[in-house]
Amino acid sequence: TAQAALGSLYIHGEGVPVDYREALKWTRLAAEQGDLTGQFNKGSIHGGGLGVEKDFGEAARWFHLAAEQYDAMSRFNLAIVYSRGLGVARNDAEAVYMYNTAAVIAGTPEIGLHDLAGEAERVVLNLMMTMDQQTIREAHARSKDFEARYLKHYLKGYFERKRSGEEAQQEP
């Protein structure tokens, strides 16, 4: 977590000069250890060409890893990559799935990315205008399956946090 945070500071020049070499060093260390922020930032570095040559395929690889950890922004970015065929084969069904699942996660109260959820829903409606009905149904079915898994994951974490909070209140 600290490595990802340090990488972010170098990316944005917060408290230190912007230094993409240092940002990449710290971000890579965090990302390779499975840190969600490190993985998202590594995707952003490659997708934005921040101190490296733009590589949307590499960006997609890191966004996928973060997306597997229920990161809404990574899923939103993957949707863009798939809808435009940037570094991956264009796949509108995968883009719809990623937009839909980004909206599900972004709509979680604690996450507070309601604008992102709304934008994902708006973009997916435009994208579906060029798709056949069978492909749309398949993408939505995958999205519903994801929503059920995410809800289970979310509720498990919610009740664990609630239980931990109650235990902390009971300690002297």
Query: Which radius of gyration do the C-alpha atoms yield?
Result: 18 Å
Let me know the largest β-sheet.
none
Average pLDDT figure: 94
Helix content: over 70%
Number of strands: 0
How much of the sequence is in beta strands? under 5%
Tally of separate helices: 8
Q: Order of helices and strands, N to C?
A: HHHHHHHH
**Overall outline:** flat
Q: Gap between N and C termini, in Å?
A: 30 Å
Low-confidence stretches: none
Category by helix and strand content: mainly alpha
Overview of the structural elements:
This protein is mostly helical. The protein is built from eight helices and no strands. Helix content is 76%, strand content 0%. It is flat and about 50 Å long. The protein starts with a helix and ends with a helix. The mean pLDDT is 94.
Considering the chains and any ligands shown, give keywords for the structure.
single chain, 172 residues, mainly alpha, 8 helices
Helices and strands, with pairings:
Layout: H1 2-12, H2 20-32, H3 36-48, H4 56-67, H5 72-84, H6 92-106, H7 114-128, H8 133-170
Helix pairs in contact: 1-2, 1-3, 2-3, 3-4, 4-5, 5-6, 6-7, 6-8
